[in-house]
Each structure stands twice: as structure tokens, then as C-alpha cells.
Amino acid sequence: MSLFAALSVGASGMSAQRARAELLVENLANAETTRTPEGGPYRRKDVVFRSAEVETPFGSVFTQAQAAGGVEVAEVVTDSREPERRYAPGHPDADAEGYVAFPRVNPAEDMVDLMGAARSYEANVAAMGAVKDMIVRSIELLR
To answer: Which of 35, 44, 48, 98 might form a disulfide with 89, Cβ 3.0–4.6 angstroms?
Structure first.
């Protein structure tokens, strides 16, 4: 794998973790949302990743080079479980029995997942920094 392919792999990882972090923040922001335009409470969302070949900037020049394996978002999965019902008779969205449907979002779980996404993003940044340093060092050696 070329150094440029390694940069593309790191960039694909950063992009995937950014998408994951965006959905986790959306989940946290809507943890108490009982009414959406679609009707009913907010539904928790999560991403599913899959491996993918990444394009390298000089891939067409190096025809013998094999494609590098990166990652991409395969799909966004919406939680299909029944909403959590809480007794709150004064709430505007309460049903006839006084229960309100709330999203099944666990803020503690999503915060831990968000920290994991941030650390994965940072790991890709560090890997790309190491590759950049190798490229710079290679150029210095060829002078």
C-alpha cells in the first residue's frame, strides 16, 4: 500500500466517524422529543459501517497497486422498538390514560459512544499525521 493510499484510508475513517458522531449528537439533542413531523416521538438512529475500497490520488498512475481498504457508512438504522411510556398527565402529548411516549434514547450510552467516535477520529488523525511525516521524510532523503 502506498503512503497516499494510507492517507485515503485515514480520511475514510474520519468521514465515517464524523457521520457517526453527528447521529449521536442528534440522538442526544432529541432524547426528550415527544413530537416529530412524522408523528410520534423521535426514533434513535445509528450508523452501520462496511469496508470499502478507497480511491487514491495517484491510483490510475500506479496500475499494479491494489486498492486500499477503507470504511464507509452502509446505512443509517432507525430504532424500531416501541417508545418508552412515562406517566405525565399534564404533558401536552399525554394520551387518555396520562402516558406520554418518549424516545428510547439512553444519554449515558450515547455519550460513551460519542467518546468512542471522537477517539476513533483522533486515531485516524494521528495515523494520517504519521503518514504525512513519512512522506516529508522521504522527500528530504531524496534531495
So the answer is: 98
**Of 52, 29, 21, whose CA–CA distance to 117 is shortest?**
21
Task: Give yes or no for a contact between 107 and 31, defined as CB atoms under 8 angstroms apart.
Answer: yes
Greatest CA span in the chain, whole angstroms? 79
CA distance 81 to 39: 15
Buried b (16+ CB within 10 A) or exposed e, 70-89: bbbbeeeeeeeeebeeeeee
Contact 110, 89 (CB under 8 A): no
Cell of 86: 412515562
Chain segment 69-116, per-residue pLDDT in tens = 889 999 999 999 999 999 999 999 999 999 999 999 999 999 999 999
Burial of 39 (0-12, 13-18, 19+ CB in 10 A): exposed
